[in-house]
Amino acid sequence: QGKFAFHNGITTFLEVMKRHGGESPDAAEFSMLCLEQLCGSEECGEELADKGGLKQVAAMLRQHQEDPGVQEAGCSLIGVLAGHPSLRDNLLGAKIFHLVLAALQ
Fold first, then answer.
1. From CA 15, how far away is CA 57, in angstroms rounded?
2. Which distant-in-sequence residues (6+ apart) come within 8 Å of 33 by Cβ?
3. Which of 8, 22, 42, 64 has fewest C-beta within 10 Å?
4. Taking all residues of the chain, what is their mean pLDDT, rounded to a whole number?
5. 62 pLDDT above the threshold of 50
């Protein structure tokens, strides 16, 4: 039952980010904060990547470059995902690290 909740949560927050994140920095930030909590396990992080979540996070970081909350939430989520060895190649392939460096400046 707990596993289902995690997988359902990943799908839900990716959908919120997809539908509302582009126009609402708050929706983008909230979704990424929730995904960070859900992706503590490598399995859930892999699911996020498999569902296109890395591209969505990158899109939110690009669209909301001037919003510190979005930048912080995105960087924090990426930090959690980078802690999973199986996701490092996916993160490099998504060319997401340059967005983190830009956010830190």
1. 12
2. 73, 76, 77
3. 8
4. 87
5. yes
**Residue 54 region by backbone torsions, left for phi larger than 0, else alpha for psi between -120 and 50, else beta:** alpha
Neighbours of 65 (CB within 10 A): 12
CA atoms of 68 and 46, how far apart (whole Å): 26
Per-residue buried b or exposed e for 74-87, using 16+ beta carbons within 10 Å of the residue's own CB: bbebbebbbebeeb
Contacts for 30 with CB less than 8 Å, ≥ 6 apart: 16, 73
> pTM (2 decimals)?
0.86
For residues 78 and 81, give the distance between their C-alpha atoms in angstroms, rounded to a whole number.
5
